[in-house]
Amino acid sequence: MTVIDEQGRPEPPVDGDELTTLTGFLDFQRATLAWKCRGLDAAGLNATVGASTMTLGGLLKHLAYVEDDWFTRGLFDRERSAPWNTVDWAADHDWDWHSAADDTPEQLFALWEEAVDRSRANLAEALADGGLDRPARRVWPDGRAPSLRWILTHMIEEYARHNGHADLLRESVDGSTGE
């Protein structure tokens, strides 16, 4: 039975197996980002803190990219899909961050939610084809390939780090705090 907290986040299981624990923590981190961004208009999603140019909208778009990059491109070596396949990443390696200002809140949430849905489907496919030990098909320049276990753990770290940024950004927008 999944326990949902007061912010609508699914609590990770306290007694799950390895896969259930890893995906539980990843889903909790995903839900934390959604909570920090929920209910904001374009101005709120484009607000910055101090000298940083980071925004909540940029976080949504960046994490949509990261979801697709790891669970689609890295895990299966599939080509990037739109909008990622139209970007000259060598010329603009931060496109995902700053282009978010051109998108509506609805577009940003849809892009992120669709990426999460693809990631979940790709995770299920990879689990059926080797489990957590399954190596990514796209290898690193040194020839190593991270396992699905590594990718899941990395995604938890990616969200957790950026959710710290989201805390500060959301507080600067409307004073909302928590975790």
TrEMBL record:
Gene3D superfamilies named among the record's database cross-references: dinb family like domain (1.20.120.450)
- Where does the source fall among the domains of life? Bacteria
Q: Which InterPro entries match?
A: DinB/YfiT-like, MST-like
Kindly name one Pfam family recorded for this protein: MST
UniProt name for this protein: DinB family protein
**Which organism does this sequence originate in?**
Jiangella rhizosphaerae
